[in-house]
Amino acid sequence: MKLGAIVAVLGVALSHAAGAQRPPAVWTPSAQAPAGTLTHALEAQRHDRFIEIARNGDIELVFFGTTSTEMWSWKDRGRSVWDRELGSLKAANFGAQGSGFKSLLWRMQNGELDGYRAKLFVLNFGPGDDRITNPFDDRTAEFVAGYGSIIAEIRVRQPQARILLLAGFPRGQLTRESWREISKLNAGVFAQLTDDETVFYADFGERFYRPDGSYNRDYWGMPGPAGIGAQVPLFDLWAEDLQPWLDRFVR
């Protein structure tokens, strides 16, 4: 499907979502997921835990994403920052390694969006610096369609909530100048998904570079002190850059 057609379909979907009646809660354990829906056993385990958290209710801030988002819950990565910066909020982390648009959509339709009324959803799926390089290629169309289905599902099941889409974090493969070009192209793609009323976009990638243009591996290690991937200082940066959004929509 061409990008223009996908965007048109997305607009219709969001319009219907905004006025649709909220569907009843469905609490489906991972064991009942159709074969091939969830990426691996870890995502299945996390879904079962997440729907129990959701059923307990009293959640106002929710994170969805892949491994970096899941790392908010890891003791050697983001847990201390979460407790310090987000612990006073009614926050839940539903990030799971291996999450994809297909698997996350099933999870959302089967319990992870039910049982509570959130004020803000934070979605962090990328693309990273090795993803979209041309906002009109076929991969971009697939990305817009996948993200659009997730947004539409949130709008149906959590119509009162705002949604913040985050750009993927740079991982050091690119110079600052190259990253800025990628960031500009990515912003054009995400613009197809936002309306700045309910769905918003933020890019923290510039802060991964030092004033001299070098990449700061304190944020993303290859490997870092705690291993490959997001390091503890990244979560400090992430929490800091989220504060204006939390002040605006959650507190």
Please describe what this structure looks like:
By secondary structure, the chain is of the alpha/beta class. It has a single domain, classed as 3-Layer(aba) Sandwich (Rossmann fold). 44% of the residues lie in helices and 12% in strands. It has 8 helices and 7 strands, in the order ααβααβαβαβαβββα. The strands form 2 sheets. A 5-stranded parallel sheet has the order 2-1-3-4-5, with helices on both faces. Helix 1 (3-19) packs parallel to helix 6 (138-157) and helix 5 packs parallel to helix 6. The N and C termini lie far apart (41 Å). 37% of the residues are buried.
Report the radius of gyration as a whole number of Å: 18 Å
Our count of domains comes out at 1
SSE class: alpha/beta
Q: How many individual β-strands?
A: 7
Rounded average pLDDT: 88
Instruction: Encode the helix/strand succession as letters.
Output: HHEHHEHEHEHEEEH
Number of helices: 8
CATH level 3 topology: Rossmann fold
- Helical content stands at 40-55%
Which architecture name does CATH use?
3-Layer(aba) Sandwich
Looking at CATH, the homologous superfamily is: SGNH hydrolase
Q: Looking at the structure, what is the overall shape?
A: globular
For the biggest sheet, the summary is: 5 strands, parallel
Uncertain segments are 5-9
* Share in β-strands: 5-15%
Q: Topology of this protein?
A:
Blueprint: H1 3-19, H2 41-56, E1 61-65, H3 67-70, H4 79-86, E2 91-93, H5 101-112, E3 120-124, H6 138-157, E4 162-166, H7 176-190, E5 199-202, E6 220-224, E7 227-230, H8 232-249
Parallel strand pairs: 1-2, 1-3, 3-4, 4-5
Antiparallel strand pairs: 6-7
